[in-house]
Amino acid sequence: MRHPYALVPGSRPPSLCSVPSRSGTPEPERSPPQPNRRPLTIESSLVPILSSIIPLGTRGLAARPRLAPAKKSATAGHYVKHSSRVTLLLSGQEEGAEMPAYSTGDTVEAILAIARPAGVLALEAKIEGVMQLEELGGSGTVTVKVLDKMVYSWVPSRHGPFPAKASFRYTLPKTFRDPAAEREYPLPPTHNARLEGFPGFSVTISYAIVVCLTRLREASTLWRGFHSMRVPFRYTHRTCPALPSPFPCNIRNSERNPRTLFVFQMRPWRGSSPGIKVHVYLPASQVCSAQEPIPFHVSLFADEYTLEPFAAYRPPSASFLPLASAGSGSGSSTSCESVAAALPRRVPRCPLRIQVQRATIVDARRAGLASPSPGLCGFGGGSQLGQAGVVPPEEQSHMHCTEWIGQGMVHSAGRSASAVVWSGAIIIPPSAAGLGGGFEVNGLRVADSLVLSIDPPAGCRQRYIPLAVTIPLQLTSDVFGCEAAVTVSPLG
278, 265 in Cβ contact below 8 A? Predict the structure, then answer.
C-alpha cells in the first residue's frame, strides 16, 4: 500500500521558498531542482521515509544549516532617560528604541549623572521585577516580586562627594525563588493579559530600573525631598529546541526522536457510517522555534467515496499571503475567513483550519486570590475542544483568556484511493514571535497549542461531525543551536 505522505513533493514548493529567513543571514545557494522521482511505496507501515514527505529542499536526515542569532554588541547603541534631576544612560541598546530590552543572561550596563549634586543626601538604583495578579470584580490582588536587587548606593557621609557620573553593572539572573510556593522558577518574561467580565483577571509582569534620589530642600528646616525615576524595560526568556529537526514520523516519544504523529477520529452523525481517521504529522515536533515556519501534514484515511468531497479542494499557486504588521495585536491579519472570502465562490474552500493559540491561565486558589464561584469558569485541558461536562473540582478556580498568534496555510494537496493529504506551514508574525514561548510561575501559566479543525464539505456535512482538536506546543524564541538560549526538551 502506498502511504499518502509519499504524495508530498520531494522539493520545497515555490510558495514556501519565498518566505524569508528572520535571522538576517543570507541563505546558501540552492542546488538546481532534481528531476521528479517515482514516489516510494511502503508495505503495511505507518512510518514513512522522511525524505519522501518533508518538502524542505534537502534529502535524507541532514539538517538545514542553522545560525544562532548574534549576541547583542556592547557598542550597539544607547538608551537615555532624563528627568529634572537625574540622567540614566543604558548601553547595548538599539538606537531609537522606545523601551530598553534584555534577555536571559544579559548584563545591564548603566551610567548615572546628577544635574545639581549640591544638597544630595543619597542616591540609590535598583532593578525590580513584579508579577501582579488581580481578580476583576473580586477582592483579591497578589503581588510577587520576582526580582529586587540594589545595584548602586551612594551616601555622602560614607562615600564622600558625589562624582560627576557613576556607573554600575548587573547580570540578570536566570531564575527566581518564590517563598510562598517554595519553588524555583525561570525568570518570567514581560507579559500582559486581561480577561474582561465577571469573574475576570488582569495579569502584569513588568521590569524596571528605579533610581531614587534624596536631597536636602532647605538647610534651615532640614526638610528632605525625594525624587524617583522609573525606567521600564522588556525582558525575554530565550529558549531553543534541544534537538535539531526535522524528525521522522513517530507516535511515541523517545530520547532522540520526539513524538511527531497524532491520530484522531472524525466521527459520523450516525453510528452505522464509517469514521474518518485523521493523522497530523509535525516534522518539527511539539518543540519548535517561532522564528521559522512550522511545517505540517494532515492526512484523512477512508474509502474513496467518503473522501471525494474532501479531495475537491486545490490550493492556489501562491498560498502564503502577507501577514499582519508588527504593530497588530492579534498575530495575523490573514485569517482563514479572510482568505476564504477573497477566493472566487466557485473555488472549493479548504476544509482544514490550523492555527496557534496562546492561553493565559490563572489558578486563583493557588495564586492566593479569592477563588471564583464554582462553575462560572474553568479550563479544560483535554485534546478535544467543545466537550460538555462538569468542571473538575481542581479546575473550578481556573480562569483563562486566549489569543491567536499564528496562522497555517495549505500549499499542496495530494490524493490516493484511500487518503487525502494536505501539506503546509504555520507562520508566526515577528510581533508574536518576539514574545518567546510559554512559561509557568506560581498560579500563572502561559501555554501554546496548535488548534486544528476540519469542517466537512457540503457533500458530507450531514454525515460527519466537525472535528476540533488541540495539540500542545512549546514555542521557543530562538532556533536550535543558539548558545545564549536555554534548551527545551521534547514534550512528554
Answer: yes
